[in-house]
Amino acid sequence: MVGLKEELLKSIWHAFTALDLDRSGKVLSHNLCTVLNVPHDPVALEEHFRDDDEGPVSNQGYMPYLNKFILEKVQGNFDKVEFNRMCWTLCAKKNLSKSPLLISDEDAFKVWVIFNFLSEDKYPLIIVPEEIEYLLKKITEAMGAGWQQEQFDHYKIALNSGREGLSVWELIDLIGSGQFSKGMDRQTVSMAINEVFNELILDVLKQGYMLKKGHKRKNWMERWFVLKPNIISYYVSEDLKDKKGDIILDGNCCVEALPDKDGKKCLFLLKCLDKTFEISASDKKKKQEWIQAIQSTVSLLRAGSPPPHKEARQKRKELRQKLLAEQEELERQMKELQAANENKQKELEAVRKQLEAAAARAAEEEKKRLQTQVELQDRFSLELEREKMVRQKMEEQVAQKSSELEQYLQRVRELEEMYKQLQEALEDEKQARQDEETVRKLQARLLEEETAKRAELEKWHLQQQQTIQMTEAEKQELENQRMMKEQALQVAMQQLKQLELERKEALEQYEEVKKKLEMAANNTKSWKDKVAHHEGLIRLIEPGSKNPHLITNWGPAAFTEAELEERQRSWKGKKATSE
Predict the structure, then answer these.
(1) Membrane spanning segments where (predicted)?
(2) Is CB count within 10 Å lower at the N or C end of the chain?
(3) What CATH topology corresponds to 206-306?
């Protein structure tokens, strides 16, 4: 009943949408009750539309009434063709194309009914390209023409580019235009449409003329046989106006071939529960086709399966639904993959940006490092060059200082030699007797000055040795001090020359005194001893001696303790000799 209800709703939908809104509900309901053999309830109809008369646009709508008061009461005891014709009559005048078609209105009606059978179970009703191809193939095969697959593929591509399928009126225009039936006359097309209508709508599995043997009179009469899923009906002619009987089929029926007899050929026997029928086909091919068709029908009855065209339609629909579900699943997966890919792209873009930023930072750091390295190298090179220059300068200064020190030491050695010569000269003064005190004082004064100068020179010498070991920062100051000391040394040399001149004068005086002393030595011995006793007083005091000095009544002695002992021994020897 559910399938029957869906088939009825498709035809009713066409009629309902074609009527004017102000009278669609009541007019359509009355006609449906008439053709479907359902008792008409005008009270319920008026109650349902009590507030307004707008049909499907009312507050309650038309579908609840249609389901409750009409469709639920349908028993199946109605003429489907008459029902479809009533709905067709209500919608065809408004929607059928006014342009001339190659098919008649009756053929258009049959195409309209076939459309309702093959269309999708969703509204507004359309027929998908797969079902259009199936219908056109059936019509082409019924006409005995070849199927033009390439032509339909081009049409299918153009159709799929803008829409999902065709409406019933577009399908009628397509078939009526003759686009896929070129070269065929109107009668051939009409016969093909009628054959497809009989198979798909009237469930006619096979039909044709055959001879049937009577049960009572046993005579053979030509009849028009129509095979349906559960019955075989036979008529006087193919116009189906004079029906002669029915053969009820079930799972217990069987069919078998018979040999030729009584002048009849191509015989087969159909056995049912209550009767057996002998039938003669026109030829062996027709005989075999009928036997196979009846056997297939009985097999379907045993299996409880629907007719082949309905089963094929259901399989095509299930396949489309499966493909649609797979396509939706694929689209969902593609969207998920696309979303995941976009996320990955975003992540990769973020990682790429991070890598670029890291690379930029690394490049900047490398640039800074190289710049710092170059700066350090330049700085180190400058410092190294400066250090080399400072070292070279220091070496030059040290060499200069060494040369100056050598010259200074040479001068000191010359002074020491001069001091030795002076000492030798002073040795000659030991015998001076007269004016000893005056000469001694003069000598003491000169020696004190010379000792002070010598001590000052030695101090400058020690300071210059310390100056050599000083740092570079002190070298310039030391150089200045050295210059000053050299100047002081020159002054001292000049003073020393002055002293030498004075010494020469003193020697000359000493020579004069010595002569006088020699003259006086002859006069008195005692004076000689006295002079000998005090000889050390007129001796020049040597500078720089490290031995301890003797102290006399007149101050520090001019000779050492060893020299004093030697002189004492000399005096004692002289004294012993004189005695």
Answers:
(1) none
(2) C
(3) PH-domain like (2.30.29)
- For the entire predicted model, the pTM comes to 0.55
Alpha helices in 469-560 (DSSP H): 472-521, 525-533
The mean per-residue pLDDT over the stretch 340-348 comes to 90
Q: Among all chains, which residue has been given the structure tokens 């040394």?
A: 489
Of 182, 12, 221, the residue nearest 102 (C-alpha): 182
Q: How far apart are CA 443 and CA 423, in angstroms?
A: 12
Phi-psi region of 219 (alpha: psi -120 to 50; beta: other; left: phi over 0): beta
Q: What are phi and psi of 232, to 5 degrees?
A: -120, 120
Give dist(CA 258, CA 393) in Å, integer: 142
Between the CA of residue 113 and those of 8, 11, 84, 118, 498, what are the distances in Å? 11, 8, 7, 9, 161
Q: Which two tokens stand for residue 114?
A: 């076939």
What is the average per-residue pLDDT within 116-134? 87
CB 75, CB 37: distance < 8 Å: yes
**263 vs 525, residue with greater confidence:** 263
Q: Contact, 250 vs 230, CB < 8 A? A: yes
As a whole number of Å, the end-to-end CA separation of the chain is 190
- Find, among 26, 223, 193, 201, the residue nearest to 104 by Cα: 193
DSSP string, 26-66: HHHHHHHHHHTT----HHHHHHHTSS---GGGSSS-SHHHH
Q: Cα(230)–Cα(577) distance, rounded to whole angstroms?
A: 195
CA 355 distance to own-chain centroid: 9
pLDDT tens-digit readout, 223-281: 999 999 889 999 999 888 899 999 999 988 999 999 988 888 899 999 988 889 999 99
Band the pLDDT of 54: cuts 50, 70, 90.
Answer: very low
Edge-first strand listing for the sheet containing 206-213: 243-248, 231-235, 220-228, 206-213, 276-280, 267-271, 254-258
- Cα dihedral 34→40→44→45 (10° resolution): 30
Q: What percent of the chain has pLDDT over 70?
A: 86
Burial of residue 568 (CB within 10 Å: 0-12, 13-18, 19+) is exposed
Q: Judge whether 231 and 247 are in contact, CB under 8 Å.
A: yes
Do residues 444 and 391 make contact, with C-beta atoms less than 8 angstroms apart? Answer: no
Please compute the mean of the pLDDT values over residues 369-379 and round it to a whole number. 89
Q: Where are the domains of the chain?
A: 1-202, 206-306, 308-399
